[in-house]
Each structure stands twice: as structure tokens, then as C-alpha cells.
Specification:
The protein has five helices and five strands; from the N terminus they run E-H-E-H-E-H-E-H-E-H. The chain is an alpha/beta fold.
Length: about 130
């Protein structure tokens, strides 16, 4: 399997208020063949999720208006998207943050700055979960 394109067609949403993080995640994901949907915050994301129905969602924890925990909880409460894997992104690598992420239903927790490899590995691990 060609690892450069093994994620072809996988729809990944990246929710982060940092333009830099969104752009770098987008570049990594596009190189792997993913379709990328970007959102600046939770409200922006919730408006786009229904239209795009992503396979995997990355959400930053620290965002204005609607933080990552609230966004994840709202996604998981929606029966259409409750099985969609949500991966938390945070610059803090604390046990409390990880535990709180689990409480709202997140499937994994990545610490920023992430590498291309950690991002793509997370997508690979979770992309098929929704179909199962």
C-alpha cells in the first residue's frame, strides 16, 4: 500500500482558531490524499459538519466562543455524528485535559505541535471506525 495516498478520499475536518495550525494540518492531509474541511471555531464547524459529513474530526481545545470540549460534546450528542471519531488537539499535555476530553467523548488526544506522521497515523487509526 502506498502510504502517500492510502488516505485518498478520507474527509478530515480540522477545527482550530489558529490559521497556522489549520494551514499546516491542511498541507499534511492534502499530501496524503485526504479531503480537508477547515473550521475556525466550534460554531463554524457545526455549520459545516452536516454539509460535509467528515470521517475524522480534529478539534483544538482552546478556542473562543465554543471550546473544543463543548464542540466535541455537541458532535457526539448528535445521533448522525456520534460515531464520528473526534481527536482533540492541545498545546497542553495534561492528564486533566485528556480525562476531560474522554468525558465529552473524544477518541484520541494529540499534543501540538503535531508532526505530519502523528496526524496521519491518527487519521489511519480512526478512519474506518465510523463504517464499522
Amino acid at each position: 500500500m502506498d502510504t502517500a495516498t492510502d488516505l485518498k478520499g478520507v474527509k478530515v475536518m480540522v477545527i482550530d482558531d489558529s490559521n497556522t495550525i489549520r494551514r499546516s494540518a491542511e498541507i499534511f492531509l492534502l499530501q496524503a490524499g485526504c479531503e480537508v474541511i477547515l473550521a475556525e471555531d466550534g460554531f463554524d464547524a457545526l455549520a459545516k459538519i452536516a454539509d460535509h459529513q467528515p470521517d475524522v474530526i480534529f478539534v483544538d481545545i482552546m478556542m473562543p466562543r465554543l471550546d473544543g470540549y463543548q464542540t466535541c460534546a455537541l458532535i457526539k450528542k448528535n445521533s448522525r455524528f456520534s460515531s464520528t471519531p473526534v481527536i482533540m488537539l492541545s498545546s497542553k499535555d495534561g492528564l486533566f485535559d485528556r480525562a476531560r476530553g474522554r468525558l465529552v467523548g473524544s477518541d484520541e488526544y494529540l499534543t501540538k505541535p503535531f508532526t505530519k506522521e502523528t496526524l496521519l497515523t491518527a487519521v489511519r487509526q480512526h478512519q474506518h471506525r465510523q463504517a464499522a
